[in-house]
Request: fold
Amino acid sequence: MGAANARNASLERARLRLQLELGDTLSDLGQARSAAAALSQKQQQFDRRLDDWRRKHEEAQALLEASRKEARALGAQLLELRHSLEEGAASQEALRRENQQLKEEIANLTNQVREGKKNLSKMEKVKKQIEQEKTEVQMALEEAEGAQERRESRVLRLQLELSETKAELERKLSEKDEEMETFRTNSGDEIWST
Reply:
């Protein structure tokens, strides 16, 4: 009878010890589950931030490509305008030379008119015709000069637009770089803090 009581007491102590160990184990399990849930939440936050960073990176790449395309187009237009300006300058120089030649011809014909009274009527007609041609050439020269001034103004405007586009692109890229650097710094701090 005494041995049975001793055995029962021993079993009761063992049962109590196992219950305590089970309680500790369940407590540890609850803490582990809480920690796992917290880690899972942090992982989800990190994934969302990573997706946001990837989206911003893709937007920055798209903006960069669009800006480069626009810069290439503006560069091509600038080259075309420069070529047109050079052609206009050459045409203007040719018109100036022709105008000078016509002025010299007018001077010669005027002298001939003064010297030849017999052919005065004929020479007057020639003079009027040449003066008309001079006027037409002068008008053409003025139109060419006006066209050249307009082309020069357009070239300057395109150069200004190109500079503004480059400055805007550099500013946006700098902002994206700062955002990505801030994201990396924050993400790195959060990873190490976990």
In short: The CA atoms of residues 13 and 172 lie 73 Å apart. The first helix runs from residue 2 to 115. The chain has two helices and no strands.
